[in-house]
Amino acid sequence: METFVQELVNSLSVASVIILMGIGVTLIFGLTGIINFAHGEFLMIGGIGVWVLVSNGMGYVPALLISVAFVALLGFLLERGLFQFTLPHPNNGFMASLGLSIVLQHIVIRIWNSFQKSIPEPFPGAWQIGEIRFIKMRVVVVLITAVIVAVTILTISRSRYGLALRASLADRQTAALMGIPIGRYITAVFAYGSAIAGLGGALMIALFPITPFVGSEMIMLGFAVSLIAGLGNVAGVVGAGLILGLVQGLSGAYGTPEWTTAYTYGLLIVILIFRPQGLFGGTMGPAIE
Amino acid sequence: MAQWGRRLNKNPTSVAAVALQAKTRPPVGHAKGGVHPSRTFIIVTAVVVVAVLALPWMHPGYRLLSFAVTTCLTAIVLYGMAVPFGQAGIMSLGYAGLMGFGAYTAAILSRDLGMNMWQAMPFSALVAALFAGLFGLPSLRISGHHFAIVTWVMCELLRITLVNGGKFTGAATGLDLPPIGKAFGLDMDKLANAYLLVAAFMLLCMLATYLIANSRFGRTLRSIRENEQLARAIGVNTDLLKLTAFMASGVFAGIAGDLQAYNFRHISPDLYGGAVSMYFALMVMLGGPRTLFGPLTGALIVTFLPEVMRIDPIDSRIAYGVALIAVIMLLPGGIIAVTERGYRWLAEAVRGARKGVSSPGADSSTA
Predict the structure, then answer these.
(1) Partner residue facing B150 (CB), from A91, A262, A272
(2) CA nearest B288: which of B301, B277, B275, B278?
(3) How many interchain CB pairs under 8 A, A with B?
């Protein structure tokens, strides 16, 4: 029983990174209709950024902040420079993002290399409660994710910005006629989603070593949670992220770790075919085509 | 194939049928509105065929020739993809996986039943076609991004299964194959001869794609791309058509897999993952899925050119990604489609200028 609870606790931190990934995917898709394949590369760059700064002698926390800010800036520039032009044709945006993901990945490999990178544990040690060990860094990751999730959900459901956002999701034209600056909202959401992905990467590298290829693995998990939850449904992402995190953690602990990804993918296929709107109900994306 | 066409023609005067026919574009490589291929098109095709077949006599090095083999193998898969993607407009990201089914079928038949490349080829094609049908099944319910993601995921599932397949699939190290041996009196151990074999298959696949695109089947497929609901409303069985298109493209991928397995003599799961599928899809887009030379051009630009020019593989990937973004943003339809349009514009401009010389002021609106 102790090991079971221990595995539950451990898989929470994996679930956190997946949730951070999924929030960005679900927000960006919900608003722009772009399935951004390069979103995983934002996570990778966030992690690699922290690695670069920390290995040059910076502390973990400032490195994390700078790295996240950099990824947010990158997201902003890419939206302004590339994705705003594909808004009328989301399929072109999807294909361009495939190309972008290759470009970003190989630029990182070119400057550094394709080997695993890791940093020393920023908050070493663990708390012991009864039989269960809470590794400090993992607790930090879960807490930060909880804060981000709470802020995102509250902003969307309570603030006037969230109201405007939901209005533009429901009907872009009417919202624009009401004086909501849709273009700015799209840019802001894109940059925010990118920043959260960068944060996911910055937290991830404190947990495990990462390679420049981590983005392509994580983006599929990001798609998986946001599609399983139903696109545009942030609370659903949390639920789906917990499910996938547990599946990953528990199948790693009991029995068949080599099939872990296969379970996730199998679940994704079944849900996409039989419930394209997702488990918890979401949109199918903005009605453009 | 005739069945769908007949349904279309049953009531030729119906408004919907007229609208549908008007919407479909002229088939690949044909002069505007013409039924017979244009003269330029025939000349270009002849030049390409001769160039492809003459390569071994131009004294390429071993390295260049082996990249040419890889390019032709890739082009075969891309010509398969051009059927559902170019004609019906459905993008699938599962083609590396289908190639994998072909390759692993060939390898396992060779190991367990002692079959050679030719005996295994029909089985490779059949297995890949069946799985292409399976990969295509979700397209009946979902479309666009969702379908692309599902097929990508299916491809990854195959890779995971191959890695975990134990002795049967050779796990992560993969399987080895015997040499091709002799074919048509040629010794296939010589790379030049092996290249000719693969190149011949590539040209056959090119021809097959051309024939499919210009058949009744191909025209009906285009009706799905232009307006699926309308096509269904006038009685086109879109579900059956889509699956047939996927299975046809699976045959191409299966044959390519069989050829690849015997040319590489060693196959491993990494050759058939989702990332490779993605590259295939992007190559088709780069060249242009609806044109006859698009897939070949895509394969040439991505697999052949960087190696020949000895560009660092990482630099070439970056350049390739940038080129792809540029093509999508600036030249939708692919490089070849734009070249064709440019050529047509040039030809008309020249014709207009000539007319202008013979009878001044006769035609000033052509250019």
Answers:
(1) A272
(2) B301
(3) 107
